[in-house]
Amino acid sequence: MPDRPTRSRSQSRAGDGDWPGRPAAGSDSDTLTDAEAVDQLTHQLEIAKSLAAEHLASLQRTAADFANFKRRTAEDRERDFGLASEMLLRKLIGVADDFDRALDHMPVEFKDSGWIEGIVLLDRKLRSVLESEGVTPIESVGRAFDPHEHEAIAIVPGTGRPDGEIVDEVQRGYRVKDRVLRPALVAVAGEAGPDTTTHIN
């Protein structure tokens, strides 16, 4: 039999450590001590934690922005709806004004007619609709003038009433819930001059 090539024990030991990517035995240039490996892993962990915190903060900001967007959208929609409702209510109280004028100037001879009763019934229905929407009239005559609820268009002297007391209502005012929908146009007692009425522009 042919003899097998043999290698020395020292050559076998040297060859056993020659794996790809692995330092040769006896080389210290690429090996890490336990302390250095722990430091490296700790550093990588800190980087990962920092990135996770940044991503979490970004997600929280995005969630907060979306919540604010939803809130603003809901507020805008509610405001637009409120403005549309208020415009409609203003038109309805204009119709109520027409009923007021018609009934105030009703001829005496028509007072007991069925036609007038129908007008009165329609007026009541309109008032009922307004009340169902939270619209109520502003009280004026006999009350002190309130610039938030009343608009003075005349000063009436010689009434014997305290200055600023409302003596006549020219046009009825209305409020919707806790807001003034339209101020009442009124005349107030004052001392502008004897037996004269001063109009306020």
Low-confidence stretches: 4-29, 194-201
**What is the residue-mean pLDDT, rounded to a whole number?**
80
How would you describe the shape? elongated
Instruction: Please tell me the total number of domains.
Output: 2
What string, H for helix and E for strand, traces the elements in order?
A: HHHEEEEEEE
Strand order of the largest sheet: 3-6-2-7
- How can the largest sheet be summarized? 4 strands, mixed
Radius of gyration equals: 45 Å
Strand elements, count:
7
Q: Helices and strands: which structural class?
A: alpha+beta
Distance between the termini: 134 Å
In DSSP terms (H or I, runs of 4 or more residues), the helix count works out at 3
Helix coverage percent of residues?
40-55%
Question: How large a portion of the residues is in β-strands, by DSSP E?
Answer: 15-25%
Notable characteristics:
201 residues; four-stranded mixed sheet; 16% strand; elongated; disordered C terminus
Structural topology:
Layout: H1 9-16, H2 34-104, H3 114-132, E1 135-138, E2 150-156, E3 166-171, E4 173-176, E5 179-182, E6 184-189, E7 198-199
Parallel strand pairs: 2-6
Antiparallel strand pairs: 1-4, 2-7, 3-6, 4-5
Helix pairs in contact: 2-3
